[in-house]
Every structure is written in structure tokens, then in C-alpha cells.
Amino acid sequence: MTAKRVAYLEFDHNAASEPQSVSARCAGEWTVRGVALVEPHLAALVSTGAGNIVIDVSAISALDTAGAWLLHRTSQTLERRGATVRLSGTRPEFDTLLHLVATRAEMAEPVKPVKVGFLEDVGLQSWRSLNSLSGMLAFIGESAVAFLRSLIQPRRIRWRPILHNLQTAGFEALPITGLLSFLMGVVIAYQGADQLQRFGANIFIADLVGLAMLRELSPLLTAIIVAGRSGSAYAAQIGTMKISEEIDALRTIGVGPQELLVQPKILALIIALPLLTVYADIAGVLGGMIMASSMLDISYGVFLDRLEEALSLSSFLTGVIKAPVFAVIIALVGCFQGFQVSGSADSVGRQTTVSVVQSIFLVIVADAIFSVIFNWLDL
Amino acid sequence: MNATTKQRPDSADVIDIRDLHTRFGKAVVHEDVSLTVRPGEIFSLVGGSGCGKSTLLRAIIMLLQPVSGSIRVFGQEVIGLNDESALPLRRRWGVMFERGALFSSMTVAENVAMVLHEHTHLNAALINEVVALKIALTGLPADAGAKYPNELSGGMRKRAALARAIALDPELLFLDEPTAGLDPLSASGIDELVKSLRDVLGLTIMMVTHDLDLLWRTADRVAVLDKGHILGIGSMNELSKMDHPLVREYFYGPRGRAAREQTWKKK
After folding, report:
1. Which of A88, A161, B145, B260 is least enclosed by beta carbons within 10 angstroms?
2. Residue of B135, B148, B168 lying closest to A32 (CB–CB)
3. Contact call for B122 and A36, based on CB within 8 A
4. What is the pLDDT of residues A6-30, one digit of tens each?
5. What span, in angstroms and rounded, lies between the C-alpha atoms of A90 and B221?
6. Which of the residues B111, B120, B126 would you substitute to probe the A interface, choosing the one with the greatest number of A C-beta atoms within 10 Å?
């Protein structure tokens, strides 16, 4: 059955009667599914054909636009090469189709693939990076202005979205932040215990876990979790809203997207991230404490006594003070990348990825800067 | 109208729906819907918003599972058909969605070419040419092929969606609201297009529409749906003579009358 559903083409070079005459007999189904095989033969006809060419289409059982296009293209190119082409045996329904294809073909113009050279590509990428940088600066400026405005007029602050964001970015992140931080505490104690035991300095496990978690690890860990959870969500949400013209709709209603979408997110994260960091501090120390008691036989009471001596208020504050800065970075980058989305579904995915990568990168850079500053200040 | 149906054997009908029941949760969408679409005709579903027109279309193209009943397309039962056995059927029809549903990350030409690449063995150059021809067939300018869907106006997007729907030269074409959201000029362009597709390519067309102008100009037969029931099936002339209050309201409301008069003038 499949054999019947393809197009056929037979040549008859009747050299005896007329030296320069070819007749081609078409048969079978000249449809989009059937013509793939005859196309090379038609190309051969085009390259060799000259003189009088008769294309007999009477045996074609089905013809669609693809088949009609092939016939049209073949006879057109042949004629341009100086041959005379005649279609014989056409039926009325073929005629209308061929006529339609012929008239429409004048308007048709295949899309030429655009090739981008290496230099052009480098230029384009640099241009985009520069654009994105200036866009980011403009966005930071806009956010700052919106923030100042709401400081002057506190009634403009939208509490409902802030509370909603506090719940999704803060409260709902509690389980994962707690668990990961707890495990981090366990891991540090586990790694440290072995080393400390060698020097008989078991009790310093409290110093190790306490300082590492409070000063460095829990702010960083929390920021990375929140960047992955909420920063990406911000980018995807705003990006999708942009595609479906919801952002434009907000503007026409007279509600600034900054005011409704960006600011609540920044404010909510500024509140949520320090709280999550404190929570992560507790969970991490708890993990270290349990590990210390099970591996080094340090009771909870002894551990906590030592912890009190080891930690000063400044070691707690140096950790927590970073959190609002990280929060601003994550929220700004997430929202900015959301606004960078244009047009396609692809773009949402791309900007979401960029938002997570960029915010984690910037968080770590900021953390390094904090370390340097704290070092100067002898904290 | 039943006389002709009886003369034909059932298998000749392109679409044959019997006693269809559809439900969304507890909400009944269709109750005992039966209709047939004959080869080469332009069949239209009409009715108020939410009467289940688009749902019926989605059931036929296997995007939705009805509760009971039978839907035969080209003589084959589609309810409960698995993806593999549905493929040959899916290649024989094209669907144009209400909002175009063009793939946003591809250009218009790539959207159309994608279907050809998936289902035919044509070489890339020929596919490019066929794509350009399809784009021209729908009346889009040649430079539209290189554009992305979000760069097109609503009317052009509809045409691009139509170009993708006819990429494989289907025997059956489903159009969901082909003229919704278009200016009158573009809409009447679509009218002509639908007609010429049927006349030249010999397509069977099933469409869902609110557009009375489109109905008067193109539809051979129309089914009026209301609250999950079919109120009547027939040509526009037959339906406009029906006594059912809803049908009368539909055809003799201010807009219905205007559309009808316009057609009379043309005739």
C-alpha cells in the first residue's frame, strides 16, 4: 500500500523523432508526503533538459500544493533555460491548483538563513552586555527612587503583597533552610572533630561550629537557597507577566510595576532574609551540638557554656548584617531579569537562569567585600 | 437536510459524532450531541460563549476525553485512541487555534517548516520553498516569514497559524474562531481564504465562530449549540427560518440582521 502512495517520474528520451525532445510522465501521488523521492530526478531533468519538454501529468492520482509547487518550479526553471515546457493531460482541479500556486509563488520568497560571523557575534554579545549593565543601573536607580518615594509617603507602601512575599519567600523557606543549615553544622563538626581530637582540643568544637556558622556559612547558605527559590520565581513571574502584557496593563491602570511588583519583593526579602539567617544560625549550631555530643562526648551543657564564651555579639552581627544586603541583591537581580524577558517562552527560561547565576555570583562577591571590610575594622 | 445524509454511507462522512457526553467535574458540557460533517463542506459550530463549541472541537482533535459517545474521524473512532495510532490521523488534519498557538521561540517560517521536517522526507531547500508558498497562500507578505510571532499583529498571527495548519496539505482543517479579534478587512480576507482553501485544495473545514458575516459567506452547514444540546443543524437559510427563540435571537439580533442583509446585497 505504501508503494502506491509516492510520486513516480518516468523519462522517455525519444531521440529518434525529435532530437531535442524529452517527455516526462508523472504518476502516483504528488503530495507533500510523496514527492521527496522524485525531487532529485526533477533536478536532473532541469540540469539536462532543453528543447521541447512535455510533462504528462495525466497519471497523477493526487496533487497538493507541494506537488504543484514542484511542477511549477521545474517548468519555470526549464523555461528560464530556454526550453519550452508543456503540461499535458491536466485536469480542471489540477489547473486551479497550479494556477493558485503560480500566482502565489510570485509573492513567496523563502527565508534566507542569517549567518552571524565571529566578529559580529562578539560585537553583538558585548553590546548586549553593555546594554544589560546600563539597564541594571537604570533599574537600581528606579528602585531607589520608588523606595524614597514610599519613605516620604508611607501610605504608598503595599503591605498585602509584602506579607504575601514574606510568607512565600520567608516562612515557606523555613524547612529547607533549617534542614540544610542543620546538616551543614553536622558536617563542620564531623570534619572538625577528627582534627581537634588529635590536639586534645575537643571543647573548641563549639568555637569552630559557632563562628563558622554565624559569621560566614549561614548567611551565605540562606542567601543561596533564597536566590534559587525566590529569585528565580521573581524572574519567571515578572517575565511571564511581561509576555502576557500584564505589566503594560498595570501601567495603563496607573499602578507602577515598581510599586506593586518590585518594592514589596525587596522589602519582604530585607525582612525575611535576616530572620532566616538567624534561624539557620540556630539550626547549624544545633547540628554541631548534636554531633559534638555523639562523637566527642561533649554534653549539651558544656557545649553551650563554651559557645557563650566563644561568641561575642559582633560575631553574630557580622553575619546577620550581611543578610539585608544579600536580600537587596537577590530581589533586584530577580526582578530586573524578569523585566528583561522579551517575546518568547525561551526567553523566560533564559532570564530565570541568568537571574539565579547572577544573584549567587553577586552574593559571593558581596560576601568577599564584607570580609575585607570586617578585616579592616578588626571585627 | 436528512435526505442527503441517508443516501450516503456513514463511512463517507469525515466526522461522525454520536451521542457525545462531555463533563468537566460536575458541570455537564455536552449532552447527546450528534452531528456529521461531509467531505468538502464548510461546517460551522455556533452558539453563545460557554456553550461548549470549543470543547467539542477539542474533543474531536483528541485534546479532551469525553465521558461517553463516539467520535469517528475519517471512519476511525478517536475516543480512547493512543498517541501512536492517532499519529496517522493527526497528519491528515490541521488545527488553527484561537490565539494562534505559534511557537514563540521560532520564526513564522520555522513554525511552518517544523511540521514539514517532522512528517516528511523533503530536503531542507524544498521545505523552505514550500513554507514560503504556504505563507504566501495565507496572504502574508514574504518578509513575515523571518519574523517572530510577537512581532506580528493579531491578524498576521492568525494567518501564520493558518499557514502552519495547512503545512501538510491536510484533508481536514479545524479553525477555532478564525476571525475573532480581527478588523473587518482582515476578517473578510479570512473569509475568502477559507473559501478558496476549500475550493482549490478540496479541504473539509470545521470551524467554531461567532462571526455572522463569516457564517453567511462561507458556511455550508451550521450547528447551533446551546447548553450542551444541538438546537438545529442546517444551512444558514434553513436555520434562519427556524422557530426556536434562541436561534431567532441569534440570527435576528441587530448584528445578525445586518450580516444577513449584507449577504443578500452581495448575492
Report:
1. A88
2. B168
3. yes
4. 777 877 766 445 556 778 888 888 8
5. 32
6. B126
- B179 lies in a domain? no
Asked if residue B16 belongs to a domain, the reply is: yes
**Neighboring chain A residues of B116 at a CB cutoff of 8 Å:** 32
Q: Which residue of chain B comes nearest to A349, CA vs CA?
A: B105
pLDDT over 70 at B1, yes or no: no
Grid coordinates standing for A272?
525575611
Structural domain includes residue B129: no
**Mean pLDDT of all residues in B141-158:** 86
Distance CA B110, CA B116 (A): 10
Average pLDDT over residues A136-144: 92
Model pLDDT for residues A294-326, shown as the tens digit of each residue: 988 899 999 999 999 999 999 999 999 999 999
Q: What is the total count of domains within chain B?
A: 1
Of A109, A243, A345, which is closest to B142 when you measure between CB atoms? A109
Read off the pLDDT of each residue in B200-211 and give the average, rounded to a whole number. 85
What is the C-alpha separation between B65 and A186, in angstroms, rounded?
52
pLDDT in tens, A203-230: 899 999 999 999 999 999 999 999 999 9
Task: Identify from A31, A32, A96 which residue to disrupt to test chain B contact, counting B C-beta atoms within 10 A and taking the largest count.
Answer: A32
pLDDT > 70 in chain A, percent: 96
Contacts of the segment A240-243: beta carbons below 8 A, 24+ positions apart: A240/A341, A240/A348, A241/A338, A242/A338, A242/A339, A242/A341, A242/A342, A243/A341, A243/A343, A243/A344, A243/A345, A243/A347, A243/A348, A243/B104, A243/B150
Res. B5: pLDDT tops 50: no
Q: In this structure, what C-alpha cell is assigned to residue A76? A: 519555470
Q: Strand runs (DSSP E) across chain A, as ranges?
A: 7-12, 21-30, 52-63, 84-88
